[in-house]
Amino acid sequence: MEEFLLASAVVHYAAAAATDCGRKRPTNEDAFGFSVEDGVYVVCDGMGGAAAGEVASAIAVDEMLLKLCGRMRVEGEKQAAALPQAAEEAVSAANEAIYSRSQRDVKLNGMGTTLVSMAAEGSRIWVLNVGDSRCYRLRNRRLEQITQDHSLVEEQVRLGRMTADEARYSPHRNVITRALGTESRVTPDVFELEAEPGDLFLLCSDGLTRELADAQIESLLNTDVSLDDLCSRLIVAANQSGGKDNITCLLVRAEG
After folding, report:
1. Element (H, E) at 14
2. Beta carbons of 64 and 114 less than 8 angstroms apart
3. Under DSSP, is residue 77 helix (H, G, I), strand (E, B) or coil?
4. Greatest Cα pair distance in the chain
């Protein structure tokens, strides 16, 4: 567990994660990985025929951890890049790895994955996303969505052509407009935040947010239990609401 100085308080980060197939899918194409020591947290939701989605999400998580974990170690005279730059470069590397693999193997053609990642350095946090996996922050018991979905329905909501409720039940809600690995290049959205003691960050796949409204997620996250138990409760609630997709939750808490 890594410690940082934030204002006059010492803050450390703690994390937990869980994933589940859900009640309808035979396999789990979600993937996650994290290193508290390196301040790196990733959730991906794969897509593609056969096992292609599973391959894409696993490649993305592996590449993000490979590029970002241990990055502060100096190799020879080469100084590590600043964290936000390194995080964007890691996303590009993950995209290239998936795209190249799909071009080499016809069975994996067209595979891709969403990605939501958080990188922490001291009290500063960068959140990156591609697709409709999300990052939320719970602060002072109130939930705030940090990322914006790259999806057809969310773009319609932002344009005022559809309400949030209409988007949630739209037959087109599965259509995403940006993904990792489906094109030779991709640009993630990047959000810079300042962490405060008590902040709780949730990175999740859409198997959670399609089943639970933000108010339900907020209520569950305000329960005074361990991070592991919170992850379990989120997954149980999503399954009880239908569990139509794979469900992944990664929680990161800044503690004073």
Report:
1. strand 9-20
2. no
3. coil
4. 56
- Here the tokens at position 104 are 């080499």
Amino acid present at 137: R
Burial of 169 from C-beta contacts in 10 A (0-12 / 13-18 / 19+): exposed
Give the three-class secondary structure for 192.
strand
By C-alpha distance, which of 66, 82, 3 is closest to 33?
66
Cα separation, 65 vs 18, in Å, equals 18
Rounded to 5°, angle at Cα 158 from 152 and 161: 75
Residue pair 46/56 in contact by the 8 Å Cβ criterion: yes
Token output for 26: 């035979």
Cα angle at 201 between 26 and 61, to 5 degrees? Answer: 50
Closest residue by Cα to residue 108 from 159, 46, 33: 46
In angstroms, the CA 34 to CA 5 distance is 21
List, in sequence order, every residue forming a beta bridge with 125; answer none if it has no partner.
120, 193
Domain containing 52: what range? Answer: 3-255
User: Looking at residue 165, which CATH number applies to its domain?
Assistant: 3.60.40.10
Please say whether the beta carbons of 81 and 51 come within 8 A.
no
- How many domains would you assign to the chain? 1
pLDDT tens string 108-155: 999 999 999 999 998 999 999 999 999 999 999 999 999 999 987 777
Q: Which residue has the higher pLDDT, 3 or 90?
A: 90
Tokens representing 203? Answer: 């990175």
CB neighbour class for 216 (10 Å; exposed up to 12, middle 13-18, buried from 19): middle
